[in-house]
Amino acid sequence: MILTPTRLKGRSMMMSGCGPLMMSGQGGIRHHNDAGDSMSGGVYSHDPLEKSATEDDEWASWIMFVQEMLGASDVVPVRNETGGELAAGTLVYVSGWDNDTARFLITEAQADDPQKLAEFVLEASIGDDENGLAFKQHLVTGLDTSAYSKGDWIYLSDTPGEFAASEGTFPMAVGRVEYVDATAGRAAFALNGLVFRPSLLAAMRVTQMHECGAALTSEHTHSCHTNENATGEVEVTLPTAVAGLTFEFVVQAAQSLKIVANTGDTIRRTVSVSGSGGYIRSSTVGDYLRLRAINSTEWVAVAEYGSWTIDS
């Protein structure tokens, strides 16, 4: 069963050809309720826009569920059914829902259509009829950035799925180039589904470079930190854990980038957990790490690439 986007009273929703399969309401997701439908000639109507009071309430709940899931998540499970492979770094938007896999369907974004602007970026290629993950904020590696300079802004292109050095028809800045190379280039993407210009994105503090130690605060949440130009170990101290705080780290110099938890907090990487006030570190250029606080004492590596070690 495939749910596709449509609009009602100016609001986005997911629909199917035979009505809603599942609804969100009190008590969580539940199956469609025949008794809430209109009846004609002794037969219940399954028209999703029949406008009965129950139908309206359940559709409103379903719309809110989808919007909350997309709006609150930096990463979402997705499925590619475009007919071809989508490469790492492809900019996409959510175009539907696949109920069989419980994943959002994605399509290549393009700047010449305001209904198809970028919402997420792919960190890795996804083959046709295959599943993967899409990110709102991510450092994507393995790109061809040879036509750019380090720090250049990149924009959503009119060409589906691609980014470019200049603005498209509907201007949308999607990130900045972090490393220039024909095959191993890197770009830091920051997306929120809105059309915005570099002056707005700059306020998000996409990347901060550290040549020596630094102490982060909760105000730095969602920022990215590197050890670019460092000539020795760089130690970055996390703030006291508060659920929801998120930080990203990238090794850009062949020196140890050491992330230390505050006193009383721990850092978890898969099954390994640091001691109280422990650390996680790497010295391999290109390694990437995203830490998120899940409560008042625990940081968890929710995304990573490379050879990070922990002091367990």
Kindly name the structural category.
Answer: mainly beta
Number of domains: 3
Question: Whole-Å distance between the termini?
Answer: 46 Å
Secondary structure: number of strands: 28
CATH topology assignment of the largest domain: Jelly Rolls
Instruction: Give Rg in angstroms.
Output: 22 Å
In order across it, which strands form the biggest sheet? 17-19-21-26-27-23-24
Low-confidence stretches: 1-37, 44-56, 193-206
CATH class of the largest domain: Mainly Beta
**Major sheet details:** 7 strands, mixed
Instruction: Determine the fraction of residues in helical runs and give it as a percent range.
Output: under 10%
Helical segment count = 2
The H/E string reads: EEEEEEHEEEEEEEEEEHEEEEEEEEEEEE
- Give the strand content: 35-45%
Return the CATH architecture of the largest domain: Sandwich
Q: Tell me the CATH superfamily of the largest domain.
A: gp9
Label the overall shape.
globular
Q: Mean pLDDT, as a whole number?
A: 77
